[in-house]
Design brief:
By secondary structure, this protein is mainly α. It has helices at residues 3-6, 12-17, 20-30, 35-66, 68-71, 74-89, 101-106, 112-119, 123-139, 143-170. α4 crosses α10, α8 packs antiparallel against α9 (123-139) and α9 runs antiparallel to α10 (143-170).
Length: 173
């Protein structure tokens, strides 16, 4: 496999390890950032993170569509990936078939759903919701939905900065 095919995905494990909520925020706080400076830094880093994932999902689609065994079955592969994501978020009381379930779910309430996904404060649940939302926005080419996700993400980091300010004051760190 040529390195030019996989180079966009090499930084992903590092990005996933340095989670902005749990790893980067306390490091920046320990370095002396607080208030609006911390908020702006977290918003910038978090937005770059989401934009990189948006770009990587587009690149993944292009790469998969050019690999010969997958090229013939790109729709099948795309459906399988969406089916896997669907398994993470589907409501067990309501079974819906079809590959457009995720797109329907993300676009369900217009721009409010991606905004709410970006605003989600719980780190693990946030990842489970935000990764399928980014992939869906990219694969159905819904740029305004992605912008709504970025805006929700910015508000999320405002609250993350407040939380870390409060936590450092509470424990006198």
């Amino acid at each position: 496999m040529k390195i030019r095919i996989i180079w966009p995905f090499i930084p992903l494990p590092v990005i996933w390890f340095f989670n902005v909520d749990v790893i980067v925020a306390p490091i920046l706080k320990k370095l002396g950032m607080a208030g609006i400076t911390l908020t702006l830094a977290l918003c910038l880093i978090g937005s770059i993170d989401l934009i990189y994932h948006y770009w990587a999902f587009g690149r993944l689609g292009k790469i998969l569509s050019h690999i010969d065994p997958v090229k013939e079955n790109w729709e099948l592969a795309k459906g399988f990936i969406l089916w896997m994501i669907q398994g993470m978020v589907k409501n067990h009381n309501q079974i819906r078939d079809g590959e457009h379930f995720i797109a329907d779910w993300v676009k369900g309430h217009g721009l409010s759903r991606p905004f709410a996904i970006g605003l989600n404060p719980i780190p693990v649940l946030r990842t489970i919701g935000i990764v399928p939302a980014i992939a869906t926005c990219r694969w159905i080419n819904w740029r305004i939905g992605f912008c709504s996700l970025l805006l929700g993400n910015a508000f999320h980091f405002f609250f993350v900065a407040l939380f870390w300010d409060w936590l450092f004051k509470l424990f006198h760190l």
